[in-house]
Amino acid sequence: MRWTLTEDQELFRDSFRGWLERFAPVEKVRSWLDSGDPGEFEQRFAEEGWFGIGTAEELGGQGGGLVELALAAEQLGRSAAPSSVWLASVLAAPLLSRSPEIAAKSLAEGEFAVLALDASRPLDVEPGAGETTRYVLGGDRARRFVVPDGDGVRVAEASDVDITPRKLLDRSRSVADVSLVARSTVDLSPVASRAAVLVAADSLGAAERMLELAVEYSKQRHQFGVPIGSFQAVKHAAAQILVDVEAARSLVYYAAASVEQGHEECALHAAAAKAQVCAAAERAADAALTLHGAIGYTWEHDLQLFYKRAKLNNRLFGSPAVWNERLAAALPLVPAA
Amino acid sequence: MDFELTEDQATIRKAVAELAGKFSDEYWLEKDEAHEFPAEFYDAFAQGGWLGITTPEEYGGHGFGITEASILLEEVSAAGGGMNAASSMHLSIFGMHPVIVHGSEELKRRTLPRIVSGDLHVCFGVTEPGAGLDTTKITTFARRDGDHYVVNGRKVWISKAKESEKVLLLTRTTKFEDAKKKTDGLTLFLTDLDRDHVDIRPIRKMGRNAVTSNELFIDNLRVPVEDRVGEEGQGFKYILDGLNPERMLVAAEALGLGRAALKKAVRYGNEREVFGRPIGMNQGLQFPLADSLARLDAAELALRKATWLYDNGKPCGREANTAKYLCADAGFQAADRALQTHGGMGYSEEYHVARYFREARLLRIAPLSQEMVLNYLGSHVLGLPRSY
Fold first, then answer.
1. What is the CA radius of gyration of chain A?
2. Measured between beta carbons, which residues in chain B are less than 8 angstroms from residue A231?
3. Under CATH, what is the fold of the domain A7-184?
4. pLDDT tens digit string along B142-201?
């Protein structure tokens, strides 16, 4: 088997990365995070056409699929860009086949339509009792909510809904509680899998960036007259992150292609990616912090942006334990008593 | 709080280390390879009076506590003999505890002095293929027949049975299904392993090969009533008394083994040069060894506390289990790292760490698995629902 990105995919990845480096350098990201208003970034992100890549043309997108979305998520993760509303919108778009004009407005015009689902759990978990959905990703940034309802979806205007934003430790993402509940017979497992893959891709990007920061710092920082990167304990810790990053990359791209193609085990591939990659990125965050020493613990150092990103990703759309349970359930094990 | 060993304990430690030190690494290598009981070693310890360290003085022993016994076994193991050395005498050191506490005067007079002198080898016959650690499910049955019992059944993982004259044998005298409580109806004997009625087959295994581990097929073994320990039906309770000390002694053996492995690793790390300097200069090798030292030291403290509690008549289930858990893990990890430090040479028998590695692995399984320790701590100490 030989599996590589196509030329178009590579081109997309590189040009999107270049765009992020120009328009979302870390100083800008910090200013959006400090002000709590990422609107400038979001509007530009949508207006310049990046939002549509990875979504079918009939839904107002520009074609491509989950692999393209994963490439984008990876780059957003490595920039710590405020990407909640992008992720929420591209996850909602495939459910809008009966209202493509709403999808198009969301992806092309910045009238974001996001899923009214609890992002602290896999998206196919049934909502509990009550009339509010907690932790709606991008809920504070949405123009409309896409609510799975009956055997389809309904669309609610944000102006008709009570929205209570919540603050997250990771300021590069946002959630809100909204007065909507999705009660439907729609099979949301494909959405759950897509979300799992994309958050894993985000973690991959954050881990890559933390590795770069740690290696760079270990060459710069001297102790006992030598760069700390000359110590084996430091080198080996960095090498371990690299191993995790490379394993994560293989897992994320494979899971993205599998889910996109509807492989019969795609839900398991997505679960493996979510559980493994998000956990690995969290380990990478802890190791990178150790390699930086106290400077990594400061506000002025950028490591904190990615550290918190990786920590939130671990929980977003369900913890590794929850996804490991799904994998365990698919194995021929003795059922729990 | 006082962390000093008593004068006696310090003397014991020094004397045991000296005596055990007379048996070279090669001695243990040869015994292990030949699957041969270390008789010379055992005899030396018997002659020195060490086998009676915990046996009451009236039966020829010294009447010391578990702390002293644990120091003895730790040093025996640490001197390089590892589990081969410890297992050769382990049962003589404390295995007869149920007999000492519950046995008849006649039985004690008849057996204990011979155990102390080393003349009588004993083994412990509890576990069975169908029961594992679920001890009340054993099925080896002792049927009363006049002034005898007739025993039939199977035992497995009986250490040193091949070399033993007698066995401390747990049986059922009431079948599980007929017993009022599942812990009722078990009866303990200290009796002869009559080869005409007990077929003893050593199990081929990964390590600790100088002392056998056996399967026993018991076929109409006639046991005189005088060989019964205490009362009929109370055997489970008698065995239970010995479990915590057993865990502590095994912990001590694991700890000693870890120390032995670490010592070898440090020596090799200092001696072996690659890229023009001792390999111990590499943080990738030095840190794991330093980490193992810290873990062994911490495990030792847990063990000392456990034996102190026991010797002072205080409850020690939590500490005994914790000590076994920590010592077994720290000991195995040290052995694993010692092997890694030796690189390819670690995989050869010549450097002894491969033997330690195989033996240390055993202690994460025996006398009970690490997972069963967690079961105990989870349910009995933390108060979580029983998970098994």
1. 20
2. 283
3. Butyryl-Coa Dehydrogenase, subunit A; domain 1 (1.10.540)
4. 999 999 999 999 999 999 999 999 999 999 999 999 999 999 999 999 999 999 999 999
Using alpha carbons, select from A273, A248, A237 the residue that is nearest to residue A258: A273
Dihedral of CA B212/B213/B217/B221: which sign?
positive
Single out the residue of B362, B41, B363 nearest to residue B207, CA to CA. B362
**B268 within 8 A of B274, measured Cβ to Cβ:** no
Tell me, yes or no, if A236 comes closer than 8 A to chain B by beta carbon.
Answer: yes
Residues linked to residue A154 through DSSP beta bridges, in sequence order? A147
Q: Going by C-beta distance under 8 Å and a sequence separation of 6 or more, which residues neighbour residue A128? A: none
Looking at the complex, report in whole angstroms how far the Cα of residue A294 sits from the nearest Cα belonging to chain B. Answer: 21
Sign of the torsion angle spanned by Cα atoms A279, A282, A286, A289:
positive
**C-alpha–C-alpha distance, residues B34 and B167, integer Å:** 25
Contact with chain A for residue B290, Cβ under 8 A:
no
Q: Report chain B residues whose CB lies below 8 A from the CB of A233.
A: 283-284, 287
Where do the CATH 1.20.140.10 domains begin and end in chain A? 189-330
pLDDT tens, residue by residue, B264-298: 999 999 999 999 999 999 999 999 999 999 999 99
- The alpha carbon of residue B249 is apart from the nearest alpha carbon of chain A, in Å, by 35
A189-330 belongs to which homologous superfamily? Butyryl-CoA Dehydrogenase, subunit A, domain 3 (1.20.140.10)
Cβ distance A236 to B284 less than 8 Å, yes or no, reads yes
Whether chain A has a CB inside 8 Å of the CB on B388: the answer is no
d(CA A135, CA A299): 26
| Tens of pLDDT, residues A52-98 | 999 999 998 999 999 999 999 999 999 999 999 999 999 999 999 99
Delimiting residues of CATH 1.10.540.10 domain(s) in chain A: 7-184
Determine the residue of chain A that is closest to B387 in CA distance. A337
For an interface test with A, the pick among B275, B277, B283, B286 (most A C-beta atoms closer than 10 Å) comes out as B283
B382: closest CA of chain A, how far (Å): 21
- Cβ contact A213:A292 at 8 Å: yes
